[in-house]
């Protein structure tokens, strides 16, 4: 029997992945403090690596792109709602620090679940037009966007899952 399927490497535990994310953000903080001009470049590298990980996990197509865009939209709107509902800047940061462990993570999990269902939201726009919009999105994405997006994601020949494999 030919070995048609490659064996996936074992996924690191949640704790290991969170420690890695913490180190990445600590490095970004050091770059911001020591070399502010280099911060946008380093942040873009981190965003690109993270997007590549999602791209690989979600199949690298319209669904992956829609998931990322939906998740980012939901997170930004959640953060803006938090800013608008805060009584002051001090209250905002005080609330964010305390609530981040509980409410923010819970809402982020909820946003992640909603982002998985992004095609449903497109179909809900209109019973008649929702599926047509998805078909057009698929065609436009495959013809005009996918190749450019892959060039941007993989232009530096860095492994797609470097974030997942580096310790």
Descriptive account of the structure:
The protein is mostly helical. It has a domain at 12-57 and 125-167. The chain has helices spanning 14-34, 39-57, 62-85, 89-116, 118-123, 130-154, 162-165. It is globular. The two termini are 35 Å apart.
How many strands in all? Answer: 0
Class computed from helices, strands and strand pairing:
mainly alpha
Helix content: over 70%
Taken from the alpha-carbon principal axes, the silhouette is globular
Major sheet: none
Q: Uncertain runs with pLDDT below 50, 5 residues or more?
A: 159-167
How do you describe this structure in short?
By secondary structure, the chain is mainly α. The chain contains 7 helices and no strands.
What key phrases describe this protein's structure?
167 residues; 7 helices; 0% strand; globular
Layout of helices and strands:
Blueprint: H1 14-34, H2 39-57, H3 62-85, H4 89-116, H5 118-123, H6 130-154, H7 162-165
Helix pairs in contact: 1-2, 3-4
